[in-house]
Every structure is written in C-alpha cells, then in structure tokens.
Here is the input.
Amino acid sequence: MQEDSPLYDSIPRESKKEHKICLQTLRKMSSSEKFNKVMELNELTRSLFKQGLKKRFPNKSEQELHVLFLKRLEKCHNSNY
Here is the structure.
C-alpha cells in the first residue's frame, strides 16, 4: 500500500511502523527467500481455509471436506490464466 493512498491514512500509526519494518525486511531478502516465504504463507492460508471448513461443517468426513475444499478452491481460481 502506498503512503500517498487515502486508505493508508486510515491505518493506525503503530501499524504503519510495522508495515515499514515488514517492507524493509522484504527488501533485504533474496529472491529465493521471498519465494520460500510465499510458499510458507500459501500453505498457512490453505491450512486455515481447511480448518475453517472443518469448523463450519463438523459432521463431514475428511474425504467430504477435501472435496469441498477443492470445489471452493476452484471457485477462487482465476479462469483468465
């Protein structure tokens, strides 16, 4: 998010400091480190998504949850690619 964005102005000052630290950290990382971080965050996102499905549908089996996960994931996929 750019600092000159109106949305940026609505972020609390503490969060802006954290955002700057995060950007500084990312700039120091090599390409492979950034890629590894992306993969790590992707896995975390999938895990949280699966946990949310388990919570929402506690009576479904693991296989049913996996099918549901794949169907929901397919809805998220951008068909332009």
Remarks:
- The chain has one domain: 6-76.
- The radius of gyration is 18 Å.
